[in-house]
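Supplementary Methods, section 5.1.

A reviewer requested that the exact input to the structure prediction be made available. We therefore reproduce it here, unchanged from the version used in the analyses.
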Amino acid sequence: MKYEVSEGRLYLRREPEEKQPILSRLARIEGQVRGLRQMVENDRYCGEELQQATAIMAALREVSLLVLQDHLSAGIDHAATLLKEESGSDEGVKTAVTEITTLLRAVLKQ
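The structure derived from this sequence is encoded token-by-token as follows.
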């Protein structure tokens, strides 16, 4: 996976085949949301609506985890590269760990 660093942040540059698993899940989630909307419009049983909403939230968590996995992979690669370039400095690792920790906090607050 390719990435670039700008202003201390990692930006992933995924190839189309790397994006596909995430895009497929998002398309499925779109369908689930449309289904939930129809359920509400048709006055379906609340338990079924809640079950669908719960499934949507779980699917979104999975998307978040896929994005996080990609970011962790790029962050660790970047930190390793910086260590090699800086002859043993751990500043790159500290930066990557700080960014990863920030992202983990955001995901876990879901």
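Residues 14-108 form a domain with the Methane Monooxygenase Hydroxylase; Chain G, domain 1 fold (CATH 1.20.58.1000). These observations are discussed further in the main text.
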